Each structure stands twice: as structure tokens, then as C-alpha cells.
Amino acid sequence: MIATDASAIGVLFADVQAQHIFNDQKTFVDAEPLYSLPYIAAKYANQKHEPDFDLLAFVQENFSFPGQLRVHSNLAGNNIDHYILNLWDHLTRINTTDKGSLIGLPHPYVAPGGRFNELYYWDSYFTMLGLVESGRLDLVEGMVDNFTYLIDSIGFIPNASRTYYLTRSQIPFYSAMVKLLRDAQGDAVLVKYQEALEKEYAFWMKGAESLHEHPASLHVVKMEDGSLMNRYWDTENTPRPEGYALDLAIMNQAPGNKNLYRNLRAACESGWDFSSRWLADGKNLHSICTTEIIPVDLNCMMLHLEQTLLDAYTVSDNRNMRMKFETIVAGRIDAIEKYLWDEQEGVYKDYFFQQKQTTKSKSLAMLFPLYVGISSSKRAAQVLTFVKEHLLKEGGLLTTNVATEQQWDAPKGWAPLQWVGYVAARQYGDSELATAIRSNWMGNVEYRFAQTGKLMEKYPVVKNYDGRDTGGEYPNQDGFGWTNGVYLKMKNA
Is 273 a catalytic site residue? Predict the structure, then answer.
């Protein structure tokens, strides 16, 4: 683990990141020290003032660096299905012991690809969709057990299996993974993972018991009517190790924003890092205010977790807990419909809990109440009409209807949200929209695969896209776990 505090190794870390020794800020935090950190720190303190000192050479002498995935179409020619089937093994990692910042896990797992060699939280659910289609239930079960191991050993599922992610989680899709296994193996799965589901829920609801004078604590917010909802949060309010220089540069633009770093980190917990959705002014990162927002998608997936626990208590015939969670589920649904529905706009939107009003942003998060099946037919029809008129493009669904330099805005589209949109439209009987989402997205992926021989992390979905890789802290990555998974699932849907 590379420390980032005021110790000598923290000084080395700050110097490497601030001087942009590597193009990608994630490179150094993923490095594995070749010697003990105190030894490296002492060497650095002794050598850094020498006239001919070379910082890059010093780092290369004292750390090893994991390589990035580089896979091209020679896996299976131009056959995209065979390519993905062969790619699963290239994306599979076996890391049973801690190495540098990488957390050891007991079972093999599928990494996203490119610069990402660790196990990511919400990515994995969408990857699992394709693994099931590929007959790789062994990998699915192993990955669920890895997440269960993290819950048991750490107390929650971190953003990914790196020590520098131990201050936050990610949008909670663990219950969806358990349900995926349940579909294949039966209701006994719910009982098997019940304790881990309870611990996951306890993590997200921690602090609820202390909400008296203050409306929010950690991930929990008490609304004015007493109902409980959730927000994204991070326990640290410091620059992200993997985005250190960028975070410092943003702070220079907003020196009075005391919670800037926490808000940046909380946006990373959402998975949407970054988007105009989290920006007070809709444009500039220094206006980020993630922790002031009640997000639609998070509260819908919290509902899914609560419903899964309810199912588990029903299967295990735990009458008292079943009755308790029937009340919790009903309360969550009422809160989503009360606070996250914008009657004037006719869509679900995030909510500023301090200002007591919905945000201005209109994003694909509006589809999550339909995805989990709680929206009324009338409200669902309004949402689907908005999506059809404003977010459906030639290459799939836009994430938001505004173009910015952030990668979770126009002109980009992302595989997980294509699947959410497809399921939402299908569940509410809009087969025309469901078919359009499926065909437009798959056609986009197939077209770019024919051009490049690769599958990518994200795709432009507008017809007049100029080809520039804009948006985000790093270039578009190839691999790519959730793109592979959603493509195969959609193909067989």
C-alpha cells in the first residue's frame, strides 16, 4: 500500500503525482513496492536533494508496475461473439494475496480491462450478465463470494479491491448479483447470502439512529416527513490518491469549498464520475455538491436491497423481520415517489434535500424506478416519452441531455445504462423503445468493433460525433467487462 499521509512515503507520493511523472495518476497508486515502504521513504529523503536526482528513475528502481490489457481482434477474427467468449479468460485475474494497494481475494474474478486490474463493484453485475450467457456461472459465483468476503472482512464492498478505495463503496448492486445467482440456483441462495445482505444494508444505513438535530449522517438522510433516504458519501475529505493532481487543481478554482474533495469522492461512489448531474452550476467541477443530493438510482437500488432482504426473510420464514421489511419497503417506495418525482417536468429527478427541491439535471437515472418496477403506468409513460424524445440517439441512450467535458454527459453512452433503459422500457410495455435501445446500442458496438477489433468502456452515441476522445480523467479503455456482458445479454434477450 502506498501511503498518502504526511509520512516520508506521503511526501514521495505527493511529489510523483504533483509533478505528473506518469500520464495516468492511477499508475503510481497501483504500483507494487519492491522493498519496505520505510526503506523506500528513507532512501527518498536521503537522495531527493542530490543535484542529479531523477524522480522517475527512482520510482522505477523501487516499484514494479502492472501492465494494461492489450487485446485485439486476433482472439477471434471479426466474430464479436467468439471474441467476447475468448476475452473472458484474458480479463480473469487471480490475486489471492495483498500486493501493494491490491486487495487479495479468494476466488478468480473478471476485471473490466485496460487500466483496471481490480474487481469493481457495480461493473461486475453487468459483466455477470454476459458470463451467465456464456455459461460461466463458476465465475459469477466466485465473484459474488469475493464480494461477500469483502463484506465480511471489511464491513462493506469498496468501490473496487484497492486499499485507496476503502473510504467509499459504489452503487449497491450486490443484491442484484445475489438475485442473478438465485435465478440460476434457486431460493436457497437468498438464505445463503442473507447475513451478507444484512451487513451490506447496515453499512448503507449506518448513522440513521443518530439523526435528530441534523438531517444527514454518512449515507443516510432524514427527510422532513421522517422517512429515510440515502446519498453518496466518502469518509475522507482529502484529494483522491488516484486523482491527486486533478483534485488539487480543482480546489485551486474553489478555495472556499471546504467539502470539495469529499464531493468528488462521493461522485466516484456513484459510478458517474463525473457528470453535470453532481454540479451546482451544471458545468464546472469546482461546483460539485454530490453529498447534498438524494440520487434516484441509489435509492432505487437501496429499495432493491430491501426487497431482496424481504424475500430472504420470507424464504427463511422469519416472520418478525419479514413484517419489519414490508414496512421499510413501503416507506422507501413512498419516499421515492414523493421526493424524486418532478410533476412539472414529468420525470424522476435527484433532490437537493437542504433546498427541498429537485435538481435541474435530467439524466438516465430517471429510469431506475421503472427498472425496479415501482413506477405507476402513467408516470412511466411520461418518463419513457422523455427518453424517446431527448435521450435516444442513433447509437443508443445519452446519459444526460447536456454536452460537457465530463464523461457521464453527452455525447457518451455507457453499457450499464443501456441495459437499465432496455429493461425499463420492456417492463412497461414500450416494445418500440426497448427494441430501438437494443438495436441502436448493439449496432454502435458492432460498428466500432469492425473498425477497431476491440470493445470499449464507453461509446459516443450521436451520429455527428467528431471522433475526439473527450471527457474524463483518462483515455477510453478497451476490454471491456460491462460492454461485453450487456452486449451478450441483449443479443439473447
Answer: yes
Q: Which residue of the set 145, 242, 273, 297 is catalytic? A: 273
| Measured distance CA(58)–CA(392) in Å, rounded | 50
Domain definitions of the chain by residue range: 8-64, 72-120+129-159, 241-292, 363-493
The series of mean pLDDT values per 10 residues for the chain, 493 residues long, is 55 94 94 94 94 96 83 66 93 96 98 94 98 98 98 98 97 98 98 98 96 90 96 97 96 91 98 98 96 98 98 98 98 98 98 97 98 98 98 98 96 98 98 98 95 93 70 82 98 95
Catalytic residue from among 30, 311, 457, 478: 457
Peptide bond just before 274 cis, omega within 30 deg: yes
Long-range contacts of 426-435 (CB under 8 A, 24+ apart): 427/370, 427/371, 427/373, 428/370, 428/375, 428/377, 428/380, 428/381, 428/384, 430/381, 430/384, 430/388, 433/384, 433/387, 433/388, 433/392
Q: Angle between the 37-47 and 8-18 helix axes, to the nearest 10 degrees?
A: 70
Q: What is the DSSP string of 196-223?
A: HHHHHHHHHHTTGGG-SSSSEETTEEE-
Q: How many angstroms separate the CA atoms of 229 and 221, rounded?
A: 5
The grid cell for 339 is 421526493
pTM, two decimal places: 0.96
89 is catalytic: no
Q: What dihedral do alpha carbons 315, 321, 322, 324 form, nearest 10°?
A: -160
